[in-house]
């Protein structure tokens, strides 16, 4: 029974949406948009707002999704880049304004889609290549995202004989 489920798990698409947008809560209150591009891959853009922090920024990530158990429950991982614009409030102990921060970002998490809502729990570490040499690596901790699914993906139906045809061809 388990190999049979694993076969369907391998053949099925990861995420069940084309486009989803919403709010991401981590060190601040941010906006997130995910767009399906091909296969199990999405691109996610995050706009970091100054609502709970002193910096504004953007992160762009490529993510691969893998369905687990049922359609709508996915593990995902990816990588990308980030850029933070430092405000006048971001001063060092000597009174100098810190430089803008640029670096690499990783992400890994779990998401669940229920109807038109997508819930995600992830971890997004950052390696700052310039700007913040005091804390070049940030373990930003966990975050929660709630997105509204703007466009759903069409569901690919697999017929029983197509599964058996895959076995007979090998």
Describe the structure.
The longest helix is centred in the N-terminal third of the chain and has 10 residues, at 2-11. This protein has one domain (2-153): Porin, CATH 2.40.160. It has 2 helices and 10 strands, in the order αββββββββββα. It is mainly beta. The chain has helices spanning 2-11, 160-169, and strands at 17-25, 29-38, 41-48, 55-67, 73-86, 101-114, 117-123, 126-130, 137-138, 142-152. Strands 1-2-3-4-5-6-7-10 form an 8-stranded antiparallel barrel. The radius of gyration is 19 Å and the shape is elongated. β3 and β4 (55-67) form a beta hairpin.
Question: Any descriptors?
Answer:
mainly beta; Porin; single chain; 2 helices; 170 residues
Secondary-structure class: mainly beta
Detail the poorly predicted runs.
1-13
CATH architecture: Beta Barrel
How confident overall, as mean pLDDT? 80
Alpha carbon gyration radius: 19 Å
Say what the CATH topology is: Porin
Helix fraction by DSSP (H/I, runs of at least 4)? 10-25%
The number of helical runs is 2
Short description:
The chain is mainly β. The chain contains 2 helices and 10 strands, in the order αββββββββββα.
Helices, strands, pairings?
Layout: H1 2-11, E1 17-25, E2 29-38, E3 41-48, E4 55-67, E5 73-86, E6 101-114, E7 117-123, E8 126-130, E9 137-138, E10 142-152, H2 160-169
Antiparallel strand pairs: 1-2, 1-10, 2-3, 3-4, 4-5, 5-6, 6-7, 6-8, 7-10, 8-9
């Amino acid at each position: 029974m388990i190999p049979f489920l694993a076969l369907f798990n391998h053949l099925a698409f990861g995420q069940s949406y084309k486009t989803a947008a919403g709010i991401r809560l981590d060190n601040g209150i941010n906006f997130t948009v995910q767009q399906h591009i091909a296969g199990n891959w999405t691109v996610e853009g995050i706009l970091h707002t100054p609502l709970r922090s002193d910096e504004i920024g953007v992160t762009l990530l490529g993510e691969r999704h893998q369905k687990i158990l049922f359609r709508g429950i996915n593990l995902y991982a990816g990588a990308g880049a980030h850029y933070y614009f430092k405000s006048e409030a971001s001063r060092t102990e000597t009174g100098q304004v810190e430089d803008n921060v640029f670096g690499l970002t990783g992400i890994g998490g779990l998401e669940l889609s229920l109807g038109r809502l997508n819930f995600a729990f992830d971890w997004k570490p950052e390696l700052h290549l310039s700007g913040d040499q005091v804390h070049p690596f940030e373990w930003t901790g966990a975050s929660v995202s709630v997105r509204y699914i703007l466009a759903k993906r069409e569901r690919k139906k697999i017929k029983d004989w197509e599964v058996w045809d895959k076995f007979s061809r090998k």
